[in-house]
Amino acid sequence: MSSNSPTKLSLCFILFIFTCMQSETAQLQEAKIMAVYLQDRTRGPNTTVVPIAGIHGKAWTYFSFGTVYCADDPITEGLEESSAQIGRAQGIFVISSLDGSIAQVLLSLVGTNEEYSGSTIEIQGPSRQLEKAREVAVVGGTGKFRYARGYVTFETVVLDLANSYSVVRCNITLEQDLYDVYRPE
Ligand SMILES: *[C@@H]1O[C@H](CO)[C@@H](O)[C@H](O)[C@H]1NC(C)=O
Ligand SMILES: *[C@@H]1O[C@H](CO)[C@@H](O)[C@H](O)[C@H]1NC(C)=O
């Protein structure tokens, strides 16, 4: 067989592409944009997260497979609920692993203040609920965050069960190439 057999050629081609991909990945630089806080209430007049569907005849909880939640959390600049509101975290999440430990998150960070109004960051992927820091992908954005890609981490930093209140810190890390476009002051 000749050494230029189609199989060998295509293998070379695949290796070539793989090498290119590797060097591109190596060039990616991260830029931590900011840490923001999601203010979460699951009961009372100011509830921001509600279960909207689940398996018939079973309890709808954060750890029962098939439960769907809808959320509209205020996003604040600081940990305190009274600190400046910069946006809303709006979307849905579904308990997506049979053992209840993973939630599939479809969440938009929607800017509402002067600086970020009209801009969004799109978050999508599995969140390992039992981990201290849950990492989920940033898959896109609009406005100041057009073409955004990166990841966020979610960490529960306040858990006040008596008042059904919690605060989740969301650290947003995006690819450096875009950073100059929306570098915060
Ligand atoms: C609900 O929100 C309103 C307006 O921000 C506030 O005045 C009120 O104290 C809140 N109620 C509770 C139970 O948190
Ligand atoms: C998120 O950011 C805060 C503040 O900068 C930092 O203390 C914390 O360790 C970060 N969390 C993760 C998971 O990187």
TrEMBL record:
Keywords of the record: Apoplast, Secreted, Signal
InterPro entries for the chain: Allene_oxi_cyc_Dirigent, Dirigent
Subcellular location: Secreted, Extracellular space, Apoplast
Segment forming the signal sequence: 1-25
GO biological processes: phenylpropanoid biosynthetic process
Recorded superkingdom: Eukaryota
GO CC aspect terms: apoplast
The keyword Lipid metabolism is annotated on this UniProt entry: no
Main localization, broad class: secreted
Keyword Secreted in annotation: yes
Pfam families recorded: Dirigent
Family: Belongs to the plant dirigent protein family.
Subunit structure and binding partners: Homodimer.
Main function: Dirigent proteins impart stereoselectivity on the phenoxy radical-coupling reaction, yielding optically active lignans from two molecules of coniferyl alcohol in the biosynthesis of lignans, flavonolignans, and alkaloids and thus plays a central role in plant secondary metabolism.
Name used for this protein in its record: Dirigent protein
Species: Panax notoginseng
Gene: DIR7
